[in-house]
Specification:
The protein folds into 2 domains: 396 residues, TIM Barrel; 138 residues, Malate Synthase G, Chain: A, Domain 4. It contains 23 helices and 23 strands. Strand 17, helix 10 and strand 18 form a beta-alpha-beta unit. The longest helix is centred in the N-terminal third of the chain and has 39 residues. It is globular and about 75 Å long. InterPro entries: Malate_synth_C_sf, Malate_synth_sf, Malate_synthase_TIM, Malate_synthG, MS_C, MS_N, MS_N_TIM-barrel_dom, MSG_insertion. Its main location: cytoplasm. One of its GO terms (molecular function) is magnesium ion binding.
């Protein structure tokens, strides 16, 4: 039972009020009464507009549904669709050419190209690992994964594999920092290094040499006493790469935060990061380990001065979108407060520790706050966020545009109006990122009544996907993001398949994207190799000369025109979707895990979050609506896959089986009930989002246990 306390007419959960008044405000020297009255004014101003924007989403979707219903049985006509979408205001006029005016952006975002991590903010250990992933051992990443084509054998160190690792790492050095003569593999004395380009040597310590290539640093560790260095001709014990330049600390898709207690945990972890004192102790392999934030790294520059490099990834925080409300705060009318407004206020408040230099370790060297804003639909919603951030800056007495924004290009109306969306936040934007998974979920939902969509695996080859990815980069460059902001690409979802990642993910920098998401610190280190192989800013200069792809392909949904799938094909598709839904939902509802490595139907571990769930649930809902499958077939698939998911989780002591009695009582098998509801209520879910049902069932599960 949540206990509320009155604060300037707001009903604030006691644990949230306690966090802010006892742990946050005192260190900032801020008056609680002034903070709460200002916060109440922000809610009074923006909550009604937030509701109106959501109502407008629903109204647009209703008109689109009616349009498709009125054209049932006729081929999809993209020209007619565009005319209609302009008539209803879904498509807006392109702004006149402009260049973003964002200033005060850290180099990691504006002038460097490299990997980005996304980490659930509820897990302190993962947060610390991600923040510390600015530097990573290439030797460890190559040795411990399948990056070389196979996995290491058990039973201790394998010298033959170690030799392959060293050979691969030195081949990389030959490419990134070539010697004036010969190869790194022939080097016998690290102090005798003479580079083809002497300017690449930028520093040293007693035990290392520091180089720079494509804006990224490479540290060669020299230690003849080390087991690896002892056998190396030049005494090289490791090659350490500057890896995750930036990390997004996520309050959204990767977490299950449904009440005040969850929000307080999230905010407290963000506070620990901004103060620099977050610490986590845990058991691993029978040992007690402690994680804390890494300090900065000092080197001696060639001229004898001190060169200090960040020891940590630059941190963004991803707030939630406009859709959800939170019981952590109730408005004067008794309704729950919009969660995104609360996030904007509290995460920015906590970031004052970094802005004012009150923390032990610095995040932003420019005094900026970096907030990623997901799931915005079109320029009106981006403009709303811009005004909200203005108000938060005024509340916290911050200069205008201290709060920077990252716009997730993951909803169809944003993709179709991307230039106008960027224009709406043109003086604070630092990031656009394609989110293929959520974007696919919204594509299916928007075209829900247009007809059955292709099989899920075939969506990636749809014309709209290529147009979406290409337009994102082209429009970002046309708006002047290069050198001022990130143009990002999405997640590599298979954390155990690093060889495949090395082969495929180089495609992201080759498109002109100066960052892309990786699922782990190890993956970030390996993905860093791609930014040495590709000069992204040179690619951006070339891409900027090309014409921007038009809207025709982007606005052509992936419909399965005239396809008649066999019964076996339908069964296979339902099984694949049902297994993914159940495998993810059971952890979300029963354990509060918002993102984890979930075995797929072939027992391959994939990083799953709400975006993948949105696709699978919307896909089945679409096929049900159009009679591709029946409700009985869907229920049969869910039951079959409940058995499979139970077997896949047999070793988890916290797991509660779903299969034996899915309909036992209202308080049992809530995860199974939630999964079923996501499918059978999928058509009416707002924009196909999964959050409303997940939150409702998670709250039931917390109350029941």
């Amino acid at each position: 039972m949540t206990v509320y306390e009155d604060r300037a007419g707001l009903q604030v959960a006691a644990e949230l009020a306690g966090l802010i008044e006892q742990e946050v405000l005192p260190g900032l020297g801020l008056d609680p009464a002034g903070f709460w009255s200002g916060t109440a004014a922000v809610f009074a101003r923006f909550a009604p507009e937030n509701r109106a924007l959501l109502a407008h989403r629903d109204a647009l979707q209703a008109r689109i549904d009616d349009w498709h219903d009125g054209r049932r049985g006729r081929p999809y006509d993209v020209a007619a669709a565009q005319t209609f979408l302009r008539e209803i205001g879904y498509l807006v006029e392109e702004p006149q050419p402009f260049t973003i005016g964002t200033t005060g952006v850290d180099a990691e975002i504006a002038r460097m190209a490299g990997p980005q991590l996304v980490v659930p903010i509820l897990n302190a250990r993962f947060l610390l690992n991600a923040a510390n992933a600015r530097w990573g051992s290439l030797y460890d990443a190559l040795y411990g994964t399948d990056a070389l084509g196979d996995l290491p054998k058990g039973g201790g160190y394998d010298p033959e594999r170690g030799a392959r690792v060293v050979a691969r790492a030195k081949a990389f050095l030959d490419e990134a920092v070539p010697l004036a003569q010969g190869s790194w593999s022939d080097l016998t004395e690290a102090d005798a290094v003479v580079l083809k380009d002497a300017a690449q040597f930028v520093g040293r310590t007693e035990g290392s040499r520091l180089f720079r290539h494509n804006g990224l640093h490479i540290e060669v560790i020299v230690d003849r006493a080390h087991p690896v260095g002892r056998t190396d001709p030049a005494g090289i014990a490791d090659v350490v790469l500057e890896s995750a330049l930036t990390t997004i600390c996520d309050l959204e898709d990767s977490v299950a935060a449904v009440d005040a207690a969850d929000k307080v945990c999230a905010y407290r972890n963000w506070l620990g990061l901004m103060k620099g004192d977050l610490v986590e102790t845990f058991d691993k392999g029978g040992k007690t380990l402690t994680r804390r934030l890494n300090p900065d790294r000092a080197f001696i520059a060639p001229d004898g001065s001190t060169l200090t490099l960040k020891g940590r990834s630059l941190l963004f925080v991803r707030n939630v979108g406009h859709l959800m409300t939170t019981p952590a705060v109730r408005l004067p009318d008794g309704s729950e407060a919009p969660e995104g407004i609360l996030d904007a206020v509290v995460t920015s408040l906590i970031a004052l520790y970094d802005i004012k230099g009150l923390g032990g370790l610095s995040n932003s060297a420019t005094g900026s706050v970096y907030i990623v804003k997901p799931k915005m639909h079109g320029p009106d919603e981006c403009g709303f966020t811009n005004r909200l951030f203005d108000a938060v800056e005024d509340l916290l007495a911050l200069p205008r545009h201290t709060i920077k924004v990252g716009v997730m290009d993951e909803e169809r109306r944003t993709s179709a109006n991307l230039a106008a969306c960027i224009h709406a936040v043109r003086d604070r934007i630092v990031f656009i990122n394609t989110g293929f998974l959520d974007r696919t979920g919204d594509e299916i939902h928007t075209a829900m009544r247009a007809g059955p969509v292709v099989r899920k695996g075939d969506v990636k080859s749809s014309a709209w996907i290529a147009a979406y990815e290409a337009r994102n980069v082209a429009i970002g460059l046309k708006c002047g993001l290069s050198g001022k902001a990130q143009i990002g690409k999405g997640m590599w979802a298979a954390p155990d398949r690093m060889a495949d990642m090395l082969e495929q993910k180089i495609g992201h920098p080759r498109t002109g994207a100066n960052t892309a998401w990786t699922p782990s610190p190890t993956a970030a280190t390996l993905h860093a190799l791609h930014y040495h192989a590709v000069d992204v800013f040179a690619v951006q200069a070339e891409v900027a000369t090309r014409p921007t792809p038009g809207l025709d392909d982007l606005l052509t949904p992936p419909l399965a025109n005239g396809v008649n799938w066999s019964e076996e094909e339908v069964k296979a598709e339902l099984d694949n979707n049902a297994q993914g839904i159940l495998g993810y939902v059971v952890r979300w509802i029963d354990q509060g895990v918002g993102c984890s490595k979930v075995p797929d139907i072939h027992d391959i571990g994939l990083m799953e979050d709400r975006a993948t769930l949105r696709i699978s649930s919307q896909h089945i809902a679409n096929w049900l609506l159009h009679g591709v499958c029946t409700a009985e077939q869907v229920d049969a698939a869910l039951l079959r896959m409940a058995d499979k998911v139970d077997a896949q989780n047999a070793g988890d002591p916290l797991y509660r089986p779903m299969a034996p009695d899915p309909d036992a009582s209202p308080d049992t098998n809530l995860a199974y009930q939630a999964a079923r509801a996501l499918v059978f209520q999928g058509v009416e879910q707002p924009n196909g989002y999964t959050e409303p049902l997940l939150h409702a069932y998670r709250l039931k599960a917390k109350a029941a246990h």
